[in-house]
Amino acid sequence: MTAAWLIGLDPRTQFREYLGRLLLESELVYAGSGYCFALARFAEPRDTEILTAYLDYYLPRLDCHYDQNDALGALLHLDARHAAPYLTPNGLWSQSTWRDMDPAECKADMDERCAFATAAMSSKLPEWAAGRRKT
Fold first, then answer.
1. Are 40 and 72 in contact (CB under 8 A)?
2. Closest CA to 117 of 29, 7, 17, 1
3. In this predicted model, what pLDDT tens digit does every residue of 86-129 receive, in sequence order?
4. What is the C-alpha to C-alpha distance for residues 61 and 135, in angstroms, rounded to an integer?
């Protein structure tokens, strides 16, 4: 997860395919959260493709309660149009193990991570900290 965050902080897109493969393999606990963050920071069409491939594979699997919330949050952060099919009534999200989690909260969490990264990389952390949402 640490490596994925460092890759995402200073968007090193040369690791995109590697992170995408690791995300789909889902072999490390919680690491997918970092992969999704990095993909959200890259913010290119290929990242949307990787996230949708992950969601297509894992949302229907009720035995896998992995990082689908982070993947949906990253996808909503990047392009809500690509996330819309998952959120329709009786869509994959409503049938998944994450059905009780509000997709808007997934997006808000990813938005905040990406805002933190932008602030950190532009030396504006005090401003970010002063304006961040309270939980």
1. no
2. 7
3. 999 999 999 999 999 999 999 999 999 999 999 999 989 888 88
4. 31
Which residue reads 């990242």 in tokens? 47
Angle between helices 68-78 and 80-87 (to 10 degrees): 140
The identity of residue 30, as a single letter, is Y
| pLDDT, tens digit (0-9, with 9 covering 90-100), for 23-82 | 999 888 789 999 999 999 999 999 999 999 999 999 999 998 899 999 999 999 999 999
Q: How far is CA 92 from the centre of its chain?
A: 17
d(CA 3, CA 92): 30
Give all strands (DSSP E) within the chain, no chain letters. none
Token digits for 129?
């900290």
Give me the phi and psi of 14, to 5 degrees please. -65, -15
What is the spatial distance between Cα 98 and Cα 102, in angstroms, rounded to a whole number? Answer: 9
**Ramachandran region of residue 19, left (φ > 0), alpha (ψ -120 to 50) or beta?**
alpha
